[in-house]
Structures are given as C-alpha cells and as structure tokens.
Design goal:
197 residues, mainly beta, five-stranded antiparallel beta sheet, 1 helix, 10% helix
Length: 197
C-alpha cells in the first residue's frame, strides 16, 4: 500500500482504517527520518536535521519577501548550491577550494620552538603573520610560503617590525613551527591564510 491522505474515506468501514493508517504513519516516519532525527520517544533533539538533501531545481520568477536555497547542475557539477533573492540568483558553493584560515597561539619559554602548528598542503601558497600577544608590543614578522608539488617548500620574509627579538617561523619538511625570538617567555600568536589547488 502507498500513502493515502484521504484515509479514512466516508465509505470506509472501521476495519479498513487501521491498516491504511499504519501504512501512512510508516511512510511519514521514513520520509521525516531520511533527513531528520526521528525519536520514538520525546527527546531534546526531536526533529533536528541530520543532513539536508536537495533535489535539482530551476527556479524562475520573483517571490516577494522570499529567499530560496536550492541545488542545481551547472558546468557538469551536480551539487552546486544557490540562493535566490527576489529573482536574483547567487551561487553559494565555491567553484574552487575556499581559502583556509588557521589562527592560534602558543606559550613558549625563552628562545624555544613550538611543535608543528600547520602542515602545508601540496600545491599551495599562503601567508603567516606571527607576533607576541603576551606581553604584547610591536614585535612581528610576516611571511609568504608555498609548496610546489609534494616536496618543494620555500618561504620569503615580506615584512618585520623594527624591534629586535621578534618571533620567527621554522619550516621542517612541510611543517610550520613558531619560534620565540626573545630570551624571556612569550606567547606567540599566529595567523595563517592558505590557498590550494
């Protein structure tokens, strides 16, 4: 049996309704449970989304005060997401990998080097800014780094503060570490932006 929203019909005897209603409830549970948390007993996450599946659409026309999010095929890629705002279409899925942002800080003893803070991916380029955040001051260095293929890594200093005892970076293979350039303990902040193929 399939879902029947017209059940019970006026002409149905009471004995027919239980079977069709069980079919209807089973179909509803399957449909809701496909993308949502379907708990048999009440729970805090009742109805929460587990995943969102979207069928391909080709929306047209303007719907006043309505925004739409949908998926459609474009340039051979099926799972591209779009939004429609008053009839204007905007692609919200990036065509290429989005830039990666990594930030953090590490407390280091005087002249110490941290463990790995970031591993440079193959075929990528990026920048890293390091500065002292505790105690704070005008102590920084700003670098460009890149990795060509799977092995060749290089860096170039772009700018540094005029002060001495600045923080530094150290590269070992594809791994970036930060270095406390001061003989006293410091907390070094790092700010990494990376673009890769």
């Amino acid at each position: 049996m399939t879902f029947n929203a017209a059940i019970p019909l006026n002409s149905d005897s009471p004995s027919i309704f239980p079977t069709q209603s069980q079919t209807n409830y089973a179909r509803l549970q399957t449909i809701i449970g496909a993308d949502h948390q379907f708990n048999l007993s009440a729970a805090a996450d009742d109805g929460y989304h587990n995943v969102v599946h979207l069928t391909q659409q080709a929306p047209s026309g303007v719907l006043a005060a309505t925004g739409r999010v949908y998926a459609k095929s474009a340039s051979g890629a099926v799972n591209l997401f779009y939004m429609d705002d008053a009839g204007l279409e905007y692609q919200i899925t990036p065509i290429a990998p989005a830039p990666t942002k990594v930030t953090g800080s590490v407390a280091l003893a005087g002249s110490a080097t941290s463990g790995t803070i970031y591993t440079i991916p193959n075929n990528s380029q990026g920048t890293i800014f390091v500065n002292y955040i505790s105690p704070s001051g005008n102590f920084y260095r700003y670098y460009l780094f890149y990795k060509s293929g799977t092995t060749f890594v290089d860096t170039n200093l772009i700018k540094e503060s005029p002060n001495s005892s600045r923080p530094n970076i150290s590269i070992s293979g594809s791994n970036i570490r930060v270095v406390n350039g001061n003989s006293s303990a410091r907390t070094v902040g790092y700010y990494i932006m990376v673009e890769s193929i």
